[in-house]
Design goal:
The complex is a heterodimer of chains A (323) and B (311). Chain A is built from 14 helices and 2 strands; from the N terminus they run ααααααβααααβαααα. The radius of gyration of chain A is 21 Å and the shape is globular. Chain B is globular, with a radius of gyration of 21 Å. The relative contact order of chain B is 0.19. Classes of the chains: A mainly alpha (323), B mainly alpha (311).
Chain lengths: 323, 311
């Protein structure tokens, strides 16, 4: 164990306490950015379930985020149904899309999986982009009435914080269960897993369902925060941006994607004050990560800690031998 | 009374439209076919790189855009004359080739031994950087260039007029395809490239510098993207964002054609171009949805594409 359990729980409690106090300290704009970080971090963590833990090339994760957001937004804006139905319907619609797209993609592996998913996802994007009467086309939908129990920036923040924490807890629970371990085993060696009687495809499909469900949760939270949706949420460039967040934070860590999302959004917020060339900065950052930090920030930090532990241990051993 | 007259007028127009419809469909198909050729040239380059290096080059669309902008700048240099156009057509793919050569030699080749995903993300980073570089160099305004005199105007075929430039494209597309096929099937370099795609280590072991083979394949693929951009330049307004559209279309085409298969790219382009033309004819608002539906139907039946993928 890298950290003992007490330390883990202590730091977790400290982080949650700090998050709860944030609205009283931070100005409005920073609170907005923090809320955006939380929900984008949830989205990136959900992608990492499939890509980092499942080893599948989920190239178009943004579609499920967008489907969740559009479902919630359309129910809130165009029907008289109570708003809690919209909030619940979003993730389920996303998971349903996940099942449909997943069933086709799961037949393939690696690059074919990714290419097929981009194709199917782009179909969803093209429909949302063109169906002016229903989805608002490329303008999207704006001024969506959000539920009355979420009032003001503070209400939105606490709602998002609660939903994100709950989702993260669920995901952590799923990934540390036997199912999560099996999923990682499949990532590392699908053939061997299949030969000992594990249903590889079923496990992968379930991972996609979980991940798309939580992407849908993030989508609903986006609607709550922005009160608008637009087809860019479903565009493949955005999907790859989420991908970059996972890479930046660290593929094989649970908290990595959240850190990656925070870094990217903070960088974009700062950069857009000074320059119009944000995508170039993102590209350069991406190249730097690929070359110098392929295991991501958190992955690198954990590796260093492990190395120092090991060298410290071997030093004490040597000292012991000498003594 | 007035309203009634207007109603009659409308009816007349619908009658006329019905008579014209077949002609319109023909014209749509024709324009679709010339657009198909551009798609084919770009996606054959993408497919070529995929076949050899197993990397979907996400920056491919950006190179296409750079090809178009470079063609504009070179043509401007010659004051929009006929000679200028031909020189632009020849030089802008070379410019794109040099750009990709630099990117490959300086950065990309260091990643060949890495995780496959990192290679894909690297090409995404290139796309992001190239996109903003174009904005930096050429600005956000629309640009356009004129086709040379001999390719301007239109001819009447079967009662509808077709632009001469589109006919030019329909001739050039297959020529490029045949050229690429001759290169991979008959030349020694082409054979080595195909061998390296199948078993990199073996080719390396018999003393061929695979590093350069990969480099060559990458640059040839990128030159095709630049050529596509230069060819399309006179028919569209050259603008930022043309990279996003074309790369998605090229992706879909190589996926339905079979990754790395040049003939598959041709077949895929035909299906894509015609389903779009058909969509424009049936439901103009949803025209862009039609090719996607065609792609999905094909992939449901043949998930790995219509033709055999390379290796």
């Amino acid at each position: 164990m890298l950290f003992n359990t007490g330390m883990k729980f202590g730091s977790l409690a400290a982080i949650i306490a700090a998050m709860l106090l944030c609205p009283f300290i931070l100005p409005k704009f920073y609170l907005y950015v923090l809320t955006l970080v939380l929900l984008t971090g949830l989205l990136a963590t959900s992608l990492n379930m499939v890509i980092g833990y499942g080893g599948m090339y989920q190239f178009h994760h943004g579609v499920f985020y967008g489907v969740g957001a559009y479902t919630a937004a359309l129910i809130m804006a165009k029907t008289d149904l109570p708003s809690w139905i919209a909030i619940i319907a979003g993730p389920f619609a996303a998971a349903f899309t996940g099942v449909v797209i997943g069933l086709f993609c799961i037949r393939l592996t690696k690059l074919y999986f990714g290419m097929l998913q981009i194709s199917l996802g782009s179909l969803v994007w093209a429909i949302a982009f063109r169906w002016y009467g229903f989805t608002g086309g490329d303008d999207g939908l704006h001024g969506i009435p959000i539920p009355s129990f979420i009032d003001g920036p503070h209400g939105i923040y606490y709602f998002v914080l609660f939903a994100v924490m709950l989702s993260l807890f669920c995901m952590y629970f799923i990934l540390s269960s036997i199912y999560g371990t099996t999923l990682r085993a499949i990532r590392d060696n699908p053939d061997r897993c299949a030969s000992i009687g594990i249903n590889v495809k079923a496990h992968q499909l379930i991972a996609i369902i979980y991940a798309t469900f939580f992407a849908g949760v993030a989508g609903v939270l986006f609607v709550v925060l922005e009160q608008s949706v637009f087809p860019d949420l479903l565009f493949w460039v955005f999907s790859l941006e989420i991908f970059v967040m996972c890479l930046l934070g660290g593929w094989f860590t649970f908290a990595g994607p959240m850190i990656g999302a925070a870094m990217i959004i903070a960088l974009r917020t700062c950069a857009s004050i000074y320059t119009d060339y944000w995508t170039m900065i993102l590209g350069i950052v991406l190249i730097l990560i690929i070359f110098y930090l392929p295991e991501g920030l958190l992955g690198y930090a954990l590796k260093r800690i492990r190395e120092t532990r090991i060298s410290a241990d071997s030093n004490t051993e040597q000292a012991g031998v000498k003594g | 009374m007035n309203g009634n007259a207007a109603g009659c007028d409308e009816e007349d127009k619908t009658m006329e439209n019905a008579a014209l419809d077949l002609g319109t469909l023909g014209a749509n198909c024709f324009v679709g076919l010339s657009r198909t050729m551009i798609l084919f040239i770009v996606s054959s380059g993408l497919s070529f790189i995929l076949g050899v290096m197993r990397v979907p080059n996400i920056a491919h669309g950006s190179l296409y855009m750079i090809g178009a902008f470079a063609a504009y700048s070179i043509a401007e240099l010659f004051g929009g004359s006929t000679v200028g156009f031909w020189i632009a057509l020849a030089l802008s793919p070379v410019f794109v080739g040099v750009l990709s050569l630099i990117a490959e030699r300086v950065m990309f080749r260091r990643l060949y031994q890495r995780e496959h995903l990192e290679l894909i993300l690297f090409t995404f980073a290139l796309m992001l950087i190239f996109g903003d570089l174009v904005k930096l160099v050429w600005g956000t305004d629309y640009k356009s260039i004129l086709a040379p005199d001999m390719l301007r105007g239109s001819v009447i075929v079967f009662g509808s007029s077709f632009p001469v430039y589109n006919i030019f494209l329909i001739v050039v597309g297959p020529l490029v395809g045949v050229g690429l096929w001759l290169f991979t099937a008959t030349t020694k370099m082409g054979k080595i490239t195909r061998a390296a795609a199948v078993d990199r280590d073996m080719v390396d072991a018999i003393g061929i510098n695979v590093d350069w083979v990969f480099c060559g394949a990458f640059v040839i693929g990128c030159i095709l993207a630049g050529l596509g951009g230069a060819l399309v330049a006179p028919t569209v307004s050259i603008t930022l964002g043309m990279d996003h559209t074309i790369i998605m279309e090229a992706f879909l085409i190589v996926t339905i054609g079979g990754l790395g298969n040049i003939a598959g790219a041709f077949l895929g382009s035909l299906i894509f171009g015609f389903s779009q033309a058909f969509g424009v004819y049936l439901m103009p608002q949803f025209a862009i949805v039609f090719p996607y539906i065609a792609v999905v139907i094909i992939l449901l039946i043949k998930p790995k594409g219509l033709l055999k993928s390379a290796s």
